[in-house]
């Protein structure tokens, strides 16, 4: 069989190539109608579009599930997390899990229809990591395993390529302070006495930092102190950024809500904001959206077909959110129970040691939204509304920062109070 060009099938459809250990083309297989996939057992493995689409849907479903859990915990507070960081690290733990433990991870992360989870995540991670040259964006994902578990050669080799540098063997028992320093060197001030101790066996640590530059810069002279309506009766001062420009915007009638897409520089990332038209309930005004939110609804609400280019008078808060969250209770509520219980967890794919469980999951996020960006250049679109719309985010809203190439959610949050 002739070797097709690197990253291209015989049908001419591009594929993402990933190195593996072998030299000859051995076989082809079909994955979905009309898609021919060639696998090179030593040099290249292709992650097909159906696999990447399934992984995107899985990541979106997990993001929505966890967002709703965190909103229940903080109904009137600011929420922010990075679903792609958490799902990547938990998928790495799944490689070492067996039986019901592996099944639970797959169910909570919605991996039922994803055929190649590790290399799917490698493709997403590789694409997102390239953005560090455009933005102040850093995603850190680590699985720390105590050396006493003596991770198997098979586990190490199976995770080495798709999860490069994401698994580290450390000594929690005898070199606890050194290990804390090692973790804090990766993620500043992340570990403390409560989250890491000498009994820790497996630890998931991840963090996401982002300071974006907009495609269209907000004029700094237009930033003014305004009142942010945290609910129907209370207000707080906030620095409100404003501009008039063309953006993609739409209305979601079922939840009486507006949506707008704000692209960052080079359009690799976008911020999507869901804003209720007013504060209608007795809390943040987001209750109707949160109640109806699920993965299918999110796909519908963020579908480009419901949005059109419009001249917009835009106002959004200038803000910074920095949080360390403990997602463990929320993950348990979603069904991830065996993994944290020494009596039921099964990590026999990682170690022969019995009674080993995931000790903790630590998650840190930092997001800063400022005026910074490129020159404001109007680019006409195919559907342009002639009148000027207003998008005034002076009350609580839900937002997503999305990687546009893979359409994976990097950050998911809600802003309820300055």
From TrEMBL:
Matching Pfam families: Serpin
Spans annotated as Disordered: 1-29
Keyword tRNA-binding: no
Biased composition (Basic and acidic residues): 12-29
Highest taxon listed in the record's lineage: Eukaryota
Main location as per UniProt: secreted
GO CC annotation: cytoplasm; extracellular space
Record family assignment: Belongs to the serpin family. Ov-serpin subfamily.
Task of the protein: Tumor suppressor. It blocks the growth, invasion, and metastatic properties of mammary tumors. As it does not undergo the S (stressed) to R (relaxed) conformational transition characteristic of active serpins, it exhibits no serine protease inhibitory activity.
Designated name of the protein: Serpin B5
